[in-house]
Amino acid sequence: MADSLTFYTNPTSRGSITRWMLEELGVPYETVFLDYGTSMKGADYLAINPMGKVPAIRHGDRVVTEGAAICAYLADAFPEAGLAPAPADRHDYYRWLFFGAGPIEAVFSNKAMGWVAPPERQGMVGYGNFELAIDTLESAIAGKPFIAGGRFSAADVYIGSMIDFMLMFGTLEPRTTFDAYVTPLRERPAYIRAKEIDQAHAGSKA
Fold first, then answer.
1. From residue 3, how far is each of 33, 46, 59, 171 by CA, in Å?
2. What is the pLDDT of residues 170-182, one digit of tens each?
3. 3-state secondary structure of 35
4. pLDDT tens, position by position, 137-146
5. What is the DSSP letter of 114?
6. Upper half-sphere CA count for residue 200 (Cβ side, 13 Å)
7. pLDDT averaged over the chain?
8. Model pTM above 0.85
9. What is the C-alpha separation between 46 and 55, in angstroms, rounded?
């Protein structure tokens, strides 16, 4: 019997990235919805993720946290879905997947907090400065439908989710390159299903 797959999330969180990834896989999974400050900080969930944050997955007896790690793990755990390039062709896949999880996540978190590294200390942060990070992100997708390997992959789920989120909330300035990349991703059936599931649950708690 296949290992059970459980997804821990909140419908208004970065868990939406994992939801999209799971819907792309097309495999059965159970969702456990958690609330901020209560069940997310409860002993049962802290045993899964001591950080007390979502998303997380449990696949059999294996626990994975962090959005990029979850996407990469699931692509490998379910190779039949074709969401990772062949091992010999994963250079861009790993590069941009973890560029999103590292410099892009950091630069936007710091911007949201109003913190900017002074020019003389930009070498101490992983992204340098906001403009450099965003220009680099744009260069990764310019003129391409997918970010790695010439086909849709888990890296597109992660990077596409980040760009989608930032454009939606106005934390990323609109650029033709970003729109050209993310618009077709928003039309994918799995993206649409994932949004409908989370929106329905968020609405039921309103």
1. 20, 22, 6, 39
2. 889 999 999 999 9
3. coil
4. 999 999 999 9
5. T
6. 6
7. 95
8. yes
9. 12
Q: Rounded to whole angstroms, how far apart are CA atoms 138 and 87?
A: 25
Q: What's the angle, vertex CA 134, arms to CA 110 and CA 192, rounded to 5?
A: 90
d(CA 79, CA 87): 11
Report whether 114 contacts 121 (CB < 8 A). Answer: no
H/E element holding 92?
helix 91-99
Q: CA-to-CA distance for 24 and 75, rounded, in angstroms?
A: 10
5-9 and 56-59 beta bridge pairing? antiparallel
Residues 50-54: what's their mean pLDDT?
98
- Banded pLDDT at 204 (limits 50, 70, 90): confident
Q: Give residue for tokens 């007390």.
A: 52
Q: Nearest to residue 126, comparing CAs of 109, 146, 138, 148?
A: 109
Residue with tokens 């994918």: 188
Q: Which two tokens stand for residue 7?
A: 């997804």
